[in-house]
Amino acid sequence: MKAIFIFFFFLVGHEVAMASDQGDNKSKLKNMVIRAAKENNLKLMNEYIKYGGNLNIRNEKGYTPLIFAAYYGHKKMVYTLLEAGANSCIKDNKGNTALMGAIFKGNLSISYKLMKSNCDIDAKNNSDQTALMFASLFGRDELAQKLIVKGASIASKDIMGNDAVSLAAKQSNNSMVKVLKNNN
Description:
Layout: H1 2-38, H2 42-50, H3 65-71, H4 75-83, H5 98-105, H6 108-115, H7 131-137, H8 141-149, H9 164-170, H10 174-182
């Protein structure tokens, strides 16, 4: 009986170790792909895509390769990921999208590309802020105009009761206030 228990323990322990190794390998692969997007390693990303890798994997903060590429301004990486089927509507753990990250960082050409996706133009993060609010807050006047043309709501309010106009006014961004009021 003791020998069977030892054999069973060895067998189960070995399977748990193998499962742990597989989990470690998946974690390493995920981290490698996320890092490739963050560091603009197109060669590695193209190999990952070639073998059918999941382009919508997330790190512990919910960031996807597309969110990282958009945030860091890696235009070719963003285009590659989108062409390969990455979902541009995915939100991170704070509810921010790749578009919001691109607007925040001022990556205009990436923002324009992401605005062409089928995502809700008024998608809100966990603070109820929209892409238009980001554009308003960070002085992206031209982007704000394009977002409005695409149907973004000027009247949406965040959890603090701010709309795009009040956010621009708080930043003393009079040109943005004018853009928003002229389109209201």
